[in-house]
Design brief:
By secondary structure, the protein is α/β, with parallel strands linked by helices. It has ten helices and 35 strands. About 15% of the residues lie in helices and about 30% in strands. The chain has an eight-stranded parallel β-sheet. A six-stranded antiparallel β-sheet has the order 25-29-30-35-32-33, with helices on one face. Strands 3-6-11-8-9 form a five-stranded antiparallel β-sheet, with no helix packed on it. Bound molecules: alpha-L-arabinofuranose.
């Protein structure tokens, strides 16, 4: 994590008050040179970064509804499960070391029904991830592994019902449970009902005896009906961003809290009962239901290319156990195997394994990344040697793959033995820093290694679940800088992507997309990214603002030193000092690009001030400008957010321009981000 400053929100907002310099009403001229095309913008410029944090997959994108389905979340208690005793029945539930043979399922839930009167039941109820979502006229797929005691006659009844058990939305019987472990399936169909999350899933018996359960699963319909798939509503939010790549599996989730709990991709493939699960560094257990193949299929479903981060021997354990040299060699081989799993034909060992896992077709892969933030957790000293081992092995077998370093190439303290194809820069910054850093790459040496900005966000560690409008302004200003510098910045992705907004769901502030069990929403930052990514353009055009309104140093409080990093490691990133920016800061930002195929000039305009800004747009060197132009604008109170109950309080509204011409007037609303598409033919 690279956090440049951490100002309180009030101070940040003070920074965005009207300025004293240029009068707010002074017209500024924005001149775009259509006949002096600049750098090409990489088609993969906008993508997604993802990892298991904030209940991103379990309790998030991954559609599984049962929490602690393999009973490994806690060593002593069947957490998220409770016993159900209805109608005078008596019984217990408890964890039991009763492994399912030939699987990774080591722990079972033992359900003892001591006595069950007529019309009674004893069962186990799962609370889901802050509730089980009940939707009308919906088919849910249930599966579980079970074995019964010799005396147990069954049946088992599965149901979705209100949390108090008063109403049952759907139920089904599984008639006979044998004394040998076996997998059972059932279907639950709801009727008419009002959608709600205050529900539970119950597996129960009406006859006495003992039953052991493992890998209890409940799936609602998924995106594209993929078995073991993703939530449609969240996938649709992502699809609307038209992302071009998916950086996975992390982030810190790649490294894990320690060696045992690194992202060990081989333990995340194949049938679910063969996946042992592991602890995420974000202090909860990952089911690994969303494993390597599911990441790849997620990318495939949205037309994204995988950008595969490879485990490189570092963990979040403060440098306690960094693997280097001979100890790292098996993991270099693991990385080669992983690349083969992704890209290999079915005649290769791991390509064949992918095929037997259900995906014979190889995936396109152009980029791999060696580790994550290796300047943290004592990783710096060994990174050059670790990078070299991976680089040599990968380039020997896959010469056309581009290899990303997580550290700079500045001098011998960093990566110097091999030339990375890209370096991954990360930025979590407050608003003044985001504004200042809109110019960060203007000064970047054009001969230096090109950049992938693999994590960035305008945020405040003390802010809430999702981004607010003020952060979205910082994001937009920053993105104009990335687009303008598309000759050195090849790709970028915001982080983190997801948060479950229920109490206890979040480990990180702020995030792009929020949800509960039933509903989801995009933050203002989500909409800004959607506006930028869906209006990328393929060539940068030079654009100048004159005069350029400024925010003074007095109006942007000087940044205090950065906070201590969340988990060990060096606080300052390579090449970054500990002090914040000193201003002055631009009040208006522009990026101009061309969509060559459509013949459009695309303008992205950001006004961070609390007053409207009149502009005169001058388009030079274009064949014509049609009077009708379209676009989108998002604006709102600085503290405004979207939330579960107000999911679309802030969204872009369409813009229609009828006076577009080689020179025309346009007013930028206060606190706004605007995208305009001007037709030149
Ligand atoms: O995005 C949250 C975390 O920030 C990532 O896991 C890590 O790479 C960075 O420190």
């Amino acid at each position: 994590m690279r956090t440049t400053t951490a100002l309180g929100c009030l101070a940040l907002f003070a920074a965005l008050a009207p300025t004293h310099d240029l009068g707010a009403q002074q017209v500024v001229t924005i001149t775009v040179n259509g006949d002096r095309p600049g750098p090409r913008i990489d088609p993969m410029f906008y993508g997604l970064m993802t990892e298991e944090i904030n209940f991103s997959y379990d309790g998030g994108l991954y559609a599984e509804l049962i929490r602690n389905r393999t009973f490994r979340d806690d060593a002593n208690e069947p957490v998220h499960w409770t016993v159900v005793k209805d109608g005078g029945a008596d019984g217990t539930i408890a964890l039991d070391r009763s492994p399912v043979p030939d699987t990774a399922l080591t722990t079972a839930l033992k359900l003892d029904a001591a006595s069950v009167p007529a019309n009674g039941r004893v069962g186990a109820a799962n609370e889901g991830y802050w509730g089980i979502p009940a939707r009308p006229l919906t088919t849910y797929r249930v599966s579980f592994w079970a074995k019964g005691s010799a005396a147990f006659r069954g049946p088992l009844t599965v149901s979705i019902e209100t949390s108090d058990g008063a109403s049952r939305w759907a139920s089904a019987d599984v008639p006979r449970i044998t004394t040998e472990w076996k997998k059972y399936n059932a279907t639950l169909k709801t009727g008419q009902l009002t959608p709600s999350t205050t529900n539970r899933f119950v597996v129960a018996t009406r006859s006495p005896g003992t039953v052991w359960l493992s890998l209890v699963s409940l799936f609602p319909p998924t995106f594209k009906n993929r078995p073991n798939g993703n939530r449609p509503d969240i996938m649709e939010l992502l699809a609307a961003m038209k992302p071009k790549f998916l950086r996975f599996p992390g982030g810190n989730y790649l490294e894990g809290p320690d060696f045992e709990n690194r992202f060990n991709w081989k333990a995340t493939i194949g049938p679910l009962e063969q996946r042992p699960t592991h602890m995420s560094p974000w202090r909860y257990r990952s089911s690994d239901g969303l494993g390597l193949l599911e990441f790849l299929e997620w990318a495939e479903d949205l037309g994204m290319e995988p950008l595969l981060a490879l485990y490189a021997g570092l963990h979040i354990d403060r440098g306690a156990n960094i693997l280097t040299g001979d100890a790292l060699k098996p993991h270099v081989q693991d990385a080669l195997d992983e690349i083969e799993y992704v890209t290999g034909g079915t005649s290769t060992t791991w390509g064949a394994r992918r095929a037997s896992d259900g995906h014979p077709q190889a995936f396109q892969l152009h980029y791999v990344e060696i580790g994550n933030e290796d300047w943290l957790n004592e990783g710096t000293a060994s990174y050059d040697s670790r990078f070299t081992m991976f680089y040599d092995a990968i380039k020997a077998k896959y010469p056309s793959l581009k290899i990303i370093s997580t550290m700079r190439t500045r001098d011998s303290a960093f990566v110097h033995s091999r030339p990375p194809d890209l370096l991954d820069d990360h930025f979590y910054v407050n608003i003044p820093t985001a504004l200042a850093q809109a110019h960060l790459y203007d000064a970047y040496s054009r001969g230096a290694t090109k950049v992938f900005v693999g994590e960035w966000a305008t945020n405040n560690p003390r802010a809430g679940d999702t981004s607010m409008m003020a952060f979205a302004l910082g994001d937009a200003a920053w993105l104009t800088g990335l687009e303008r510098n598309a000759d050195v910045v090849v790709m970028n992705c915001y982080a983190p992507l997801f948060v479950n907004v229920n109490p206890g769901g979040r480990q990180w502030a702020v995030n792009l997309i929020g949800y509960d069990a039933l509903r989801s929403f995009g933050s203002p930052s989500y909409y800004v990214q959607r506006m930028f990514a869906t209006n990328r353009g393929d060539v940068v055009l030079p654009a100048v603002i004159d005069p350029l309104p400024k925010l003074s140093l007095d109006e942007i409080p000087k940044a205090p030193p950065p906070p201590a990093p969340t988990r060990g490691g060096a606080p300052a990133a390579p090449g970054r000092g500990p002090t914040g920016p000193t201003g002055p800061f631009d009040a208006v930002y522009v990026s101009a690009t061309r969509d060559t195929a459509a013949g459009d000039v695309i303008l992205k305009l950001v006004n961070v001030r609390a007053t409207a800004q009149s502009t005169r747009v001058v388009l030079k060197g274009v064949p014509a400008v049609k009077p009708d132009a379209t676009g989108e604008v998002i604006t709102g109170e600085l503290t405004a957010i979207n939330a579960i109950d107000q999911p679309t309080k802030l969204t872009p509204r369409p813009v229609r321009v009828t006076n577009a011409a080689p020179e025309f007037s346009y007013e930028l609303p206060a606190h706004s981000v605007t995208v305009l598409r001007l037709k030149t033919r």
